Amino acid sequence: MTNGLPRPLRIGRIDYTNVWPVFHHFDPLSLRYPAEMVKEMPAVLNRKLKAGEIDMAAISSFAFGLSSDSYYLLPNLSVSALGSVQSILLFLKSPLEKVIHGKIALTTTSATSVNLLKIIMEKFYGGKPEYEDAEPALEQMLANADAALLIGDHAIRASWENHGYRVLDLGEIWNVWTGHWMSFALWGVRREAADANPEAVASIYEGLLESKRLGSRDLTPLVSKAMRQIGGTASYWRSYFQNLNHDFGPDQKAGLLLYFRYAHELGLMDRQVDLSEWPVPLRR
């Protein structure tokens, strides 16, 4: 037992650039209570948090909605955009008129993006395409499909290629049709972990907020890291990070609740979503 905890709290981190502004300056070793980082794709973190294998995480908004009665929402943390997001992209081999009734290959790494695509195709465009899961490799995805959905760094890299496909940004389409923000990921904590370890969760939460503050204040380290690890130009990455928002206030909440409503109307969710915020402990 360390600092009163039977084991370190486990924190899930999406292994994508879109969370770097929150995690870049976050150091679990500097916290008052022991914590461990678990880096995975969104779909894996979704499963681990639901199964209790991790205690808190940045997870897909859709996955949070499906299990919202088991989680608290960590306030003022998200991956959101008002318009273009540049990393959730639909690549069209066929005209859109064919795509909406054709076949779309889906990346399996994010439930939020997949169901956002279904809302766009079926509710906005009046289509009913066939969907098939695929590994995130653009040419293989499009071998037998009319369009392919890629997210995260796979989408970014594919957007740089001279492939000639039409590319639709799902964040931009959502904003054009609704006028709202879209929140792609939220930070959640399992309720039993938060109730049993409020001071440890508070230490992690404060560390995340401070890391977010430092990350948003100076994008230079994030831009340099992205160029080293992924490629691209400084101007691209600066624009990319500036398009993202990692707050979660009333405007982001309104957009996400509309997304959940549409998902429920299409039968993608069978329950009402409870966005109960974690009751942040008062400092002594």
From TrEMBL:
Reactions performed catalytically: chorismate = 3-[(1-carboxyvinyl)-oxy]benzoate + H2O
InterPro entries, alphabetized: Menaquinone_biosynth, MqnA
Keywords from the named record: Lyase, Menaquinone biosynthesis
Gene3D superfamilies hit by this protein: Periplasmic binding protein-like II
Enzyme Commission numbers on file: 4.2.1.151
Superkingdom, natural source: Bacteria
Keyword Lyase: yes
Pfam family, one: VitK2_biosynth
SUPFAM superfamilies documented for this protein: Periplasmic binding protein-like II
Pathway this chain belongs to: Quinol/quinone metabolism; menaquinone biosynthesis
Physiological role: Catalyzes the dehydration of chorismate into 3-[(1-carboxyvinyl)oxy]benzoate, a step in the biosynthesis of menaquinone (MK, vitamin K2).
PANTHER family, alphabetized: CHORISMATE DEHYDRATASE
Family: Belongs to the MqnA/MqnD family. MqnA subfamily.
Listed name of the protein: Chorismate dehydratase
Organism: Cohnella kolymensis
Gene that encodes the chain: mqnA
